[in-house]
């Protein structure tokens, strides 16, 4: 589910920043960018995020800003001393003149700056990182809760609209029986000199109408709509169930469309499909 959360903290001259972002996806896909000093505990951070995000394409970023007094590269005294001794020996031996600005020379020599040492993270600092992450996750959750309310309202509108369109089929169902009968009788009347058994005609008409009957589809669709509402009202974490219910609704609507032999009925079914498609597009954004 789409969301964003950010939190900051300070610890002994460090500014710790945590950001969590998520987009809708069928499963949890977590990407991380974590400061090197905290990387040894990356799995703990991942577990913490997974417990909260549950589902979606998520990005976790944790970085640190140090105080100015701690910033900058560190000179390697052993390497610098070795270079000074060699330059002095070459100068004294007359092989090369002594440089006028020895520091300008040294700064361009390889390995003068030592690699950044791996910092030891104390339990107190780690507790601050965890608390900051929890705050970012809480902000993410609040963001998603707000979006979820809007999404719920949209779902309810779509469901109400499908139910309304289903009821709009009723007048056409009642009138098309007479239309089918009239079409068959007109076709038979056009066959000059041909007698037919009216009792058999009634039987064939009943069989034909039964094949086009959509009462069962409407009843099942009504049950799916009711179940969808109940699931929305139930406990959280039902996104996949809502997706399955939407699939079942689609089956009933498609069957109704295949049995609708009038343009007016087919137009109504298209409207139902449009509302259902809007649900399917957003149901992946529900946990």
Distance between the termini: 7 Å
Succession of helices and strands: EEEHEEHHEHHHHHH
Largest sheet: 4 strands, mixed
Share of β-strand residues: 5-15%
Overall mean pLDDT stands at: 84
Low-confidence stretches: none
Helix/strand class: alpha+beta
Report the CATH architecture of one domain: 2-Layer Sandwich
Total number of β-strand segments?
6
Number of DSSP helices? 9
Basic shape? elongated
Q: What features would you describe in this structure?
A:
The chain is α+β, with helices and mostly antiparallel strands. Among the domains are: 3-70 and 131-142, Ribosomal Protein S5, domain 2 (2-Layer Sandwich), CATH 3.30.230; 77-111, no CATH class; 174-212, no CATH class. Helix content is 61%, strand content 14%. It is built from nine helices and six strands. The strands form two sheets. It has a four-stranded mixed β-sheet. Strands 5-6 form a two-stranded antiparallel ribbon. Helix 4 packs antiparallel against helix 9 and helix 8 packs antiparallel against helix 9. The longest helix has 46 residues, at 123-168. The protein is elongated.
Briefly, what is this?
This protein has 287 residues and is α+β, with helices and mostly antiparallel strands. Helix content is 61%, strand content 14%.
List keywords for this structure.
elongated; two-stranded antiparallel ribbon; Ribosomal Protein S5, domain 2; 287 residues; single chain; alpha+beta; 9 helices
Blueprint of the fold:
Blueprint: E1 3-11, E2 14-23, E3 28-34, H1 42-53, E4 56-66, E5 74-75, H2 77-92, H3 102-106, E6 113-114, H4 123-168, H5 170-189, H6 198-212, H7 215-233, H8 239-259, H9 263-283
Parallel strand pairs: 3-4
Antiparallel strand pairs: 1-2, 2-4, 5-6
Helix pairs in contact: 1-4, 4-7, 4-9, 7-8, 8-9
């Amino acid at each position: 589910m789409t969301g964003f959360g950010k939190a900051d903290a300070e610890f002994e001259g460090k500014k710790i920043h945590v950001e969590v972002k998520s987009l809708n996806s069928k499963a949890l896909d977590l990407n991380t960018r974590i400061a090197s000093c905290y990387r040894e505990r990356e799995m703990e951070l991942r577990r913490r995020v997974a417990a909260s995000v549950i589902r979606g394409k998520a990005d976790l970023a944790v970085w640190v800003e140090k105080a100015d007094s701690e910033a900058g590269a560190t000179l390697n005294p052993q390497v610098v001393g070795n270079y000074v001794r060699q330059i002095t020996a070459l100068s004294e031996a007359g092989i090369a003149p002594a440089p006028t600005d020895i520091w300008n020379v040294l700064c361009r020599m390889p390995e003068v700056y030592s690699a950044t040492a791996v910092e030891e993270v104390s339990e107190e600092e780690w507790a601050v990182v965890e608390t900051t992450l929890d705050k970012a996750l809480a902000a993410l959750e609040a963001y998603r809760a707000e979006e979820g309310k809007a999404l719920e309202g949209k779902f309810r509108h779509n469901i109400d609209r499908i139910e309304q369109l289903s009821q709009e089929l009723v007048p056409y169902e009642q009138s098309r029986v007479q239309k089918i009968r009239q079409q068959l009788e007109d076709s038979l009347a056009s066959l000059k000199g041909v007698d037919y058994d009216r009792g058999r005609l009634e039987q064939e008409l009943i069989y034909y109408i039964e094949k086009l009957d959509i009462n069962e589809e409407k009843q099942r669709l009504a049950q799916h709509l009711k179940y969808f509402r109940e699931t929305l009202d139930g406990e959280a974490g039902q996104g996949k169930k809502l997706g399955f219910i939407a699939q079942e609704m689609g089956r009933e609507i498609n069957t109704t469309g295949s049995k609708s032999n009038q343009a007016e009925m087919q137009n109504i079914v298209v409207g139902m499909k449009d509302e259902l498609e809007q649900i399917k597009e957003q149901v992946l954004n529900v946990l």
